[in-house]
Specification:
about 375 residues; seven-stranded parallel β-sheet; Rossmann fold; globular; alpha/beta; single chain
């Protein structure tokens, strides 16, 4: 088949493309590289945020459109799959739908259905980006997302595409749960594709310090909960200075981020999720332990009854501290957990296996 993947989140589309190509399909990835992360793509579509940047972007996009015809499958990463206002994206979506076979939408991140699921009462999740129990989270980022995605052109575009497209693929349990009430008939869950690291192995030596790694996106630290996780980690490092050390990355490109992961034993991921997303899964593929969201639901949707390699934390500094302290006090278990991380990725996230699941759903 001839497949077009538009947009990028944390290397999902590029990794999926590689799996599909291994199965003999022709794939084109069009994206901006997910901004500063700069992931690989076949056609680069990057907007300059200058006075003339919008005009140059539109000119490049409309020059490109004739090349985006004649595909058997088109998948967009999100309803906002281009760096344009929703009103400008709508006709481009219609163009893609008219000049290609089937069109599918990814439910991989922030969108109207996710915001609605997290803000409608009674709350659908025990905790999320927007709530902890019955208490709403209020910060600038969350307020901005709610204002962006509720009863706005972006929300209308999201609902239109969800109703009109041929299918919706959720990459995490949370996003599946957000779309299920309205679109169960055209919705599926498929794990994110993550390349297996053939050189990965459990390498922790309990005689040395544990190396904890935390990646910080300055503009999204509060939203991701890394501010809370970092405080807990710094407390552990203070209380156990001879047992652990901290490695930090702040808004670095993907290739540099990936290299930095190599040097750690434990990665601290997002605080408010139920499931590990791409950065956490990448770390696991390299034989690292992930501390983050790993609720029973994320294992249940995979049908996984045995492997439990992740350290699940709830949104409180004390819980994060206690789980990190447990690792420090149980260093002899780290190598086993690292090996389970590798097995988990190979079992559920192999790009070729995932690509076959996409092909089955698309058909």
């Amino acid at each position: 088949m001839k497949i077009l993947l538009i947009g990028e989140y944390s290397n999902v589309h590029w990794t999926l493309a590689e799996g599909l190509r291994s199965l003999g399909h022709t794939v084109c990835v069009v994206s901006n590289g997910d901004f500063w992360k700069d992931y690989r793509r076949d056609i680069s579509l990057v907007r300059e945020y200058t006075k003339l940047g919008g005009m140059k972007y539109l000119l490049k996009l409309y020059t490109l459109l004739p090349k985006l015809r004649g595909y058997d499958i088109v998948q967009i990463i999100n309803p906002m799959f281009l760096e344009l206002k929703a009103e400008r994206i709508a006709p481009i979506y219609r163009y893609l739908k008219r000049h290609n076979g089937k069109v599918f939408m990814g439910a991989y991140g922030m969108d109207a259905y996710w915001v609605e699921a997290c803000t409608s009462t009674p709350y659908r999740f025990r905790y999320s980006d927007f709530n902890i129990g019955e208490n709403r989270i209020t910060n600038d980022y969350v307020n901005e997302q709610e204002a962006d995605w509720k009863e706005t052109p972006k929300a209308h575009l999201n609902h239109h595409i969800a109703n009109d497209c041929d299918g919706i693929i959720a990459g995490l349990y949370e996003y599946y749960a957000a779309y299920e009430p309205a679109h169960k008939d055209k919705l599926t869950y498929i794990p994110f594709p993550v390349p297996s690291d053939r050189n990965a192995k459990a390498i922790y030596d309990k005689e040395r310090k544990i190396r904890f790694f935390i990646g910080i996106q300055k503009t999204r630290s509060i939203y991701k909960g890394t501010d809370i996780m970092l405080r807990a980690l710094e407390r552990v490092a203070h209380d156990y200075p001879n047992e652990c050390e901290i490695l930090k990355a702040e808004s670095v490109p993907f290739e540099q981020y990936s290299r930095m992961i190599e040097g750690c034993d434990v990665l601290l991921d997002q605080l408010y999720g139920y499931s590990p997303a791409m950065n956490a899964l990448l770390a696991m593929s390299k034989g690292k332990i992930v501390v983050g969201g790993a609720e029973p639901e994320c294992y249940d949707i995979l049908g996984e009854q045995t492997l439990r390699p992740m350290v699940n934390v709830t949104p409180s500094e004390e819980d994060v501290y206690n789980k990190l302290e447990w690792l420090v006090k149980n260093k002899e278990q780290i190598a086993t957990m690292q090996q389970q991380s590798i097995e988990f990725i190979e079992k559920h996230h192999c790009p070729i296996k995932v690509a076959k699941q996409y092909l089955d759903f698309w058909k």
